[in-house]
């Protein structure tokens, strides 16, 4: 029979094995180990608690909530379990419940920095940013050497558009925790928003740190990561990362790379293969082999026809190549389109346009999670823009939008031309042709606006605040045809729309 010490060592070793498997992108095996430990242990709570930690980090919030509630059933007074449960509820857009739990914990346990910060974080998650910042300010006075306070304070300042102050707070956090990739990544966002591109892109490398829940895992890839040295003894692989809009945006740097490196393999979403192959002469374009492990993407390279000499992530090209260099990386766009197909689409739409310019319109996206919702204006906030232009608005949404079009018709009498018969989600060659057929495009930040700018169509992206995407002379640093319209005070959709309207009037009628 194993002694208590042996059982404790087995539990500790098992938890560490599970953590390592999760870091390598095998979350299910990690959970299997922990479930076995829980079944065999006299006290299953530590193993179940670790299941909560790993599933929370992977974005599997329902599983994480269930795990932490099980721990609390056994140990109702567990401050750690209650705090972690509250953090999960915040992530599930149940911040009000999280705040109630944390205030109850605070009434029992005074002066616990983790509880206090979690409460401020819950206020932040509830979009009570000014209240959260006040809480972080107070905590910074109480815990001046505690890095998470300064890090989270920096994030709140960034949300309020106070990027210089955010950088100072994040510098203070880094002084106490220099290895924390979240601090570096958030500082990258503020530095890039401030126009400090070289330092910002250097910090942006922190997004790849494997301890981050969304950092990619790459298997069957034995080549070294490229450090910019040329020439190479074989092809250079450009590895995909993040979502479709990011893939389209990051690819704007590829012509610069191909010019320098020559033999380049580009991996991408299968839907982009045809477009990238037509747009990037000289590159070999392959569909990626990707699966999801919670939030973490796992890329497998066993399918590569030739082993690369080196590889680099697409989002790291500006850092390695020192781009942009005085102007946007793709000043007029870079993506080729099927011109005859685009011409047919335009001819079809002009029949309903009544001699007005065609203005592509995208007011939402498929990303429905709460952190993204603040980037989508309420439908009524679009009315001044819709009624302020003499244009034919064309629906570029790749999600179901008939109900929204009816709502716009009711709100302001504007009839948005539908394109429901086109598969804009999966047939990206047609989506690109549709964007090319427009005289201009306006919309929220999404793959739709990135696509429009990539094909060279003048594009206005309406956002509630100054985003991290760097600008060069007011234009997207990757995609020159794209101009951002954002307010001075974050969340002021009226000012953002007014600026978008002014830009679009100039684009559609430069002589006015």
TrEMBL record:
TPR repeats lie at residues 45-78. Gene3D superfamilies: Glycogen Phosphorylase B (3.40.50.2000), Tetratricopeptide repeat domain (1.25.40.10). The keyword Repeat applies. Keywords: Repeat, TPR repeat. It comes from the Bacteria. Pfam families: TPR_16, TPR_19. InterPro entries: CellSynth/LPSAsmb/PSIAsmb (IPR051012), TPR-like_helical_dom_sf (IPR011990), TPR_rpt (IPR019734). This is Tetratricopeptide repeat-containing protein. It comes from Thalassobaculum litoreum DSM 18839.
């Amino acid at each position: 029979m194993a002694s208590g010490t042996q059982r404790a060592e087995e539990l500790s070793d098992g938890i560490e094995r599970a953590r390592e498997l999760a870091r390598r992108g095998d979350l299910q095996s990690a959970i299997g180990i922990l479930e076995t430990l829980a079944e065999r242990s006299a006290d299953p709570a530590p193993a179940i608690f670790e299941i909560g930690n790993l599933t929370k980090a992977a974005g599997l919030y329902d599983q994480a909530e269930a795990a932490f509630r099980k721990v609390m059933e056994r140990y109702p007074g567990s401050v750690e379990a209650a705090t972690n449960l509250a953090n999960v509820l915040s992530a599930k857009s149940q911040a009000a419940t999280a705040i109630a739990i944390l205030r109850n914990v605070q009434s029992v346990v005074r002066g616990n920095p983790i509880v206090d910060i979690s409460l401020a974080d819950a206020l932040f998650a509830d979009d009570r940013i000014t209240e959260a910042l006040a809480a972080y300010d107070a905590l910074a006075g109480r815990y001046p050497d505690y890095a998470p306070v300064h890090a989270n304070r920096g994030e709140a300042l960034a949300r309020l558009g106070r990027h210089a102050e955010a950088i100072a707070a994040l510098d203070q956090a880094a002084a106490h925790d220099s290895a924390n990739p979240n601090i570096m990544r958030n500082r990258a966002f503020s530095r890039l928003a401030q126009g400090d591109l070289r330092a910002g892109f250097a910090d942006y490398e922190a997004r790849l740190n494997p301890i981050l829940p969304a950092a990619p895992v790459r298997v069957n890839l034995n080549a070294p990561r490229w450090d910019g040295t040329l020439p190479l003894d074989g092809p250079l692989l450009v590895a995909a990362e993040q979502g479709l809009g990011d893939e389209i945006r990051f690819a704007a740097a590829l012509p610069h790379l191909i010019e320098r490196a020559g033999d380049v393999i580009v991996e991408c979403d299968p839907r982009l293969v045809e477009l990238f192959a037509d747009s990037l002469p000289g590159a070999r374009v392959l569909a990626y082999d990707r699966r999801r492990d919670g939030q973490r993407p796992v890329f497998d390279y066993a399918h590569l026809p030739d082993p690369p000499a080196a590889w680099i992530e697409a989002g790291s090209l500006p850092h390695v190549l020192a781009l942009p260099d005085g102007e946007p990386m793709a000043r007029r766009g870079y993506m080729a389109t099927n011109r005859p197909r685009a011409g047919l689409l335009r001819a079809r739409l002009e029949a309903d346009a009544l001699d007005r310019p065609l203005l592509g319109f995208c007011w939402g996206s498929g990303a429905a999670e709460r952190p993204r919702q603040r980037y989508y204006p309420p439908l009524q906030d679009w009315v001044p823009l819709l009624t302020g232009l003499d244009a034919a608005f064309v629906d570029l949404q790749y999600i179901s939008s008939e109900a929204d079009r009816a709502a716009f018709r009711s709100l302001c009498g504007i009839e948005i031309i539908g394109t429901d018969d086109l598969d804009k989600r999966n047939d990206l060659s047609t989506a690109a042709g549709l964007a090319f057929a427009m005289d201009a495009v306006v919309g929220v930040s999404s793959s739709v606006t990135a696509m429009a700018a990539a094909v060279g169509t003048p594009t206005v992206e309406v956002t509630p605040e100054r985003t991290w995407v760097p600008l060069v002379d007011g234009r997207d640093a990757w995609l020159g045809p794209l101009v951002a319209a954002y307010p001075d005070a974050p969340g002021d959709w009226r000012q953002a729309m007014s600026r978008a309207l002014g830009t679009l009037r100039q684009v559609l009628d430069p002589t006015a």
